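Hey, resending since the last one bounced:
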Amino acid sequence: MRVGLFVTCLVDLMRPRIGFATLRLLRSAGCEVVVPGTQTCCGQPGYNSGDRAGAKKLAQKMVAEFEHCEYIVAPSGSCAGMIRVHYPELFADAPDWQERVQALAAKTYELTDFLVRVAKLAAVPGTFAGSITYHDSCSGLRELGVQHQPRALLAKVSGLTLREMDEAQACCGFGGAFAVKFGDISTRIVDVKCDRIVQARTDAVVLGDLGCMLNIEGRLRRRGDSTTRVLHVAEVLAGVEDERS
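The structure tokens again:
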């Protein structure tokens, strides 16, 4: 399978080892991985802020960069959701682009969804000596139905114990621009999430979106928790959570 890896802006800028972990997992699944060097943003920040014209330009750029691939995979439910769910709506008034956009959307997957449903990955290279709890990020869960897929893959990690937190499906309060526009509300929401993580009494919280990771990790550290690790599911599955990016 020829898979285009969409690294995402946050991964590229903030935690590139997630991208390398994703690459390792896709290769473990027997995929030929293509990483277009000119890729940038999927357009989600502009789209969420009302800049539809700017989002369209970035979407058109992405279509041109990735449409030759058999599949497109992103280590982010929010970015995959933007392409798969919102691109077709964004181009509803552009019939000359609609067919290309629909084709790209149909073959775009969040990482764990792709590994379980398409690649049918039988084993993962990672090991983890300890316990984790899992946070279901909103876009992956609500737009793409990503819930059992990461847990099915984590069950294959040698040494790992999963303990579910209460309200694992509840929002962490990030929501992109929401955390900036409504900081006080966002903080209240993430405080509840942090309480649930601490109550789970695990070594780490694992999730599939870097935006949520940064929000949760930042709040945990500001609350004085310096021990609970915050990891992307790709890092754990690939066994690169202790490697430097």
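The CA atoms of residues 12 and 109 lie 18 Å apart.

Sorry for the duplicate.
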